[in-house]
Amino acid sequence: MSLTCHFFDATWTRKQVILNTKTKHGSHTGEYLKVTFLNMLDEWQISKDRVALVLRDSGANIVKGVRLAELQDLSCSAHTLQLVVNDGLTSQRAITDTIAMLKKCAANVHHSIVAKQLLQDIQRGLGLPQHNLIQAVPTRRNSTLHMLQRMLEQKRALTIYCGEHGGFVCPTAYQWDLVANLIETRIPIEEVTLHVSHSNSSAFCIILCLTVLKMLLCDDESPSTQGIGTIRQVMKESISKCFFKSCGVGCLSDPRYKSHAFSCAITLRKAIEWLKKEEVTQHTMQEPAATEASMTEQEANETEENMSNKMCRKENTSSRVDAIFSSLLTPHTGDLLTSSSIYDELHLYLKEPVIDRRVGDPLQRNKERF
Q1: What is the pLDDT of residue 77?
Q2: How far apart are CA 104 and CA 112, in angstroms?
Q3: For residue 2, what are the β-bridge partners?
Q4: Rounded CA gap, 181 and 131, in Å?
Q5: In the chain, which stretches have pLDDT less than 70?
Q6: What is the DSSP string of 43-62?
Q7: Which candidate, 180, 245, 266, 352, has a CA 20 to 30 Å from the CA of 120?
Q8: Is 28 exposed, middle or buried (0-12, 13-18, 19+ CB in 10 A)?
Q9: Per-residue pLDDT at 314
Q10: What is the DSSP letter of 205?
């Protein structure tokens, strides 16, 4: 169990330090994890009131442990996205059977030097890259996607190997089509996972990232969605279930996103009101509270519909994810706030163009403002 501290200093520079790593013994119950975590804080003389938030995975025991410690906590978004993917993959028998078949294929070659050499000979004969097969590991993010990509790359070599040497069953043509379509669906999810895992990311990017994913999963007209409609639907539903709360005030105050994530006027007004309450109750930005916004189902549907209407397809972009981000972060053309806006400064702030989400530093931008 590791304890990593994240903070920013007086110059608004983000810092990250690993304070402690301990081996766990016995049953990893919630009570045990609570005691272990609080002991690590005590060793560094960190009182509970100095802990703004505990970022954790979604394991039931660590969730219970942090709650027992009576600390504000938040699930790791990247880990939660993997749970969404797992929900989708286990929802369709044809996919689970195909993945199991390819896992057996990878294990057969991986555990035999002779099999590796035979496969390499076939790869050379076909002019394919002499890459090793990748095995899917449950604890490694996106490893199933990487395995499928490598298998599809070596499709011809595997077919010949299976026909000449056996040892495993090779997928049918239909199953290979399912693999290709599943890869097309999984690639944007991997991009979003990497985005929320970046060192410059924060909880404030969650709303917009989830909007992008929902828009991608709602696009069912592409040939690459054939045969995996159930998976895409389950993933979309799982996103709504797993991410039922998002940081609304933080997203509004992040210069990379501002109000662009709130196409629903109702939710935007709520975020502004929450910001007003923060100002009234704290009078300072030194200790911002983690305010979480929860949209009703009607508001979420309205948001998704409005976002879908704003989506535009752009050519010559590096990825569909970047294209959708670009379309959502275009400058506003009209007034976002009425004349009775709570702050003139907020009005001017929202009218300014957003900074580049990939290279812009929101902390430095806010430092200049405050």
Answers
A1: 84
A2: 13
A3: 21
A4: 22
A5: 220-223, 244-319, 325, 327-351, 357-370
A6: HTT--GGG---EEE---HHH
A7: 180
A8: middle
A9: 34
A10: G
Backbone angles phi, psi at 14, to 5 degrees: -75, 135
pTM of the model: 0.69
Three-state DSSP at 2 gives strand
Cα–Cα distance between 212 and 27 in angstroms, integer? Answer: 40
Specify the pLDDT at position 166: 85
Long-range contacts of 329-333 (CB under 8 A, 24+ apart): 329/256, 329/257, 329/260, 329/354, 329/357, 330/260, 332/259, 332/260
Q: How far apart are CA 96 and CA 144, in angstroms?
A: 11
Strand partners, 8: 14
Question: Which residue do the tokens 């400058």 mark?
Answer: 331
Distance CA 55, CA 78 (A): 11
CB 261 within 8 A of CB 217: no
| The pLDDT value given to residue 156 | 95
Question: What's the pLDDT score for residue 308?
Answer: 43
What is the reported pLDDT for 39? 93
